[in-house]
Structures are given as C-alpha cells and as structure tokens.
Please model this.
Amino acid sequence: MIRLALRNLFQNKIRLTISIGGVALALLLILSLDAIFMGVEQRITVYINNSGADIFVSQADVRNMHMAYSSLPDNVRRKVNEISGVFEVTPILYLSNNIVMGNERNLAYIIGLPMDASFGGPWKMNAGRNRPGKGEAIIDRAVAEKAGVSLGDKVRILGKELEIVGLSEETSSLVNSVAFISMEDFQEQRDNFDTFSFLLVKVKAGEDAKLVADRIQAGVQDVTVQTRTDFARQERKVVKDMSTDVITIMNMIG
Model:
C-alpha cells in the first residue's frame, strides 16, 4: 500500500513539485502575516512601555490610547498626587493626527508634554533636545529621513508650523509614529486648557503599582486607573480585535 502510494506520488514529478511549492507558499504567507501582525502589535505599545509611568489614569471607561479620547479636569491631578504611594504625576495631552512635512504625511500619536516633565517624553534620542518648547517639535528620526527633513526644519502638527528641535529613536512602527510638542502649543491648537488626556503616575520606591492603582481608583471619582502592564494589554487587544478578521481571511486564503 505504501509502495503504491509512493509510486503515485512520484509518477508525475512536475505536478509534485508544483504541489509542494504551493503548500510551501501558503505556509509562508500564513507565517509572514502572523509575524507582521505580532510586530505591529508589539510596536503599538512602544510609548506606553517606555513612558516611564507605572500607572495610567484616564477618563472613566477609557482603557487604551488607540482611537480613544480621554479628558480629565485639572483637579484630578491634585487628587492623584495626594494618594498614598504616588511619587510623581505627569499630565499629557494626546491626539492621533498627521505630521505634515512638505508632501509627506505621517500618522502619529501627538503627545503634548509639559516642559518640565521628568518622564513621559522620548526615551532615546538621535539628535537634538528631548523636551520641546513652545513652537517646537520632536519627531522620529526614521520619519524625518523619509521626508527629507532634519533639525531646524519646519513641520506642521495640529495645523501649526513647528521647528524640529529633536529626533527620537524607536518611536515609529509600520502604522504610525510618536511625536512630541509642548503642552502650550497643544492647548492653543485644540482649546484643551485646564484639562488633560492622561495622567502618567510614577509610584514611590518599594510600592506595588497595582496596590497604588487600586487606591487611586477608590479615592478619585470618574477615572479609570490601570497599571502600565494592564494599559498596554488593553491597547494590544484593541488593535488585535480590529485586525483579527483581516488576518483570518488572509490565512484562509493561504
């Protein structure tokens, strides 16, 4: 029986070669798609993972950044600062928007950062400063090279021309990048005065981030409090849920 099967299998070597090649191509397609998706999924949380925050505080029921909107009044920052175990709080403004550089457009997470922020900004620099002042911006080095711009050139973010004063590393992916501008410019362009998108919280040495997050959740009303790990997990889940159907269809085709 086995001998007959082998004889039939090798009877037409051209057909056998084509069949093996087709199966190999299908498997390669499936593995490539899964690898690309895993890469995108990991890079989508690059800001969250490298922000320096142990805890993220957002508007009630907002559990991620991607395609989400969060708004917190200024008094929430004061209340969070008073919670036991909190070491430092950095407010940021956030919006997903385009960086316009001549004819080039790059979708990016736009982060409005206080000038004196000790964390929440770019974690690795290629050139220039790591904190933007008024009228200034920090963009990803790879994005800048693709568009042919560098330090001192102008980019348009949120409708305003800003000077590039810093080029960051490891802040881009296949789908977007991260850009940093001053909180003042962000507020002026979007009328976000006296409100913030997220609060980035660093806990005191020796404190457990989960316990401090629970204290904030219990002590401050109308907010959602998550550790960095939980916040990143929710971010990946959103992207995965959005892409699952596409990946499934492509794998079925494979």
